[in-house]
Amino acid sequence: MLTVDYELLDLRPGMRVLDLGCGEGRHAFEAYRRGADVVAVDWGVSEVGTTKRWLGAIGEAGEAGLRPDGTPARFEVVRGDLLHLPFPDASVDRVMASEVLEHIPDDVTAMAEIFRVLKPGGRMVITVPRYGPERICWALSDEYHANEGGHIRIYRGGVLRDRLASVGLVPGRTHHAHSLHAPFWWLKCAVGVEKDNAAVRAYHRLLVWDLMHRPWLTRTAEKLMDPVFGKSFVVYADKPATAAGSASVGAERALAAG
Question: Which residues are in the Methyltransferase type domain (predicted)?
Answer without folding.
Answer: 18-126
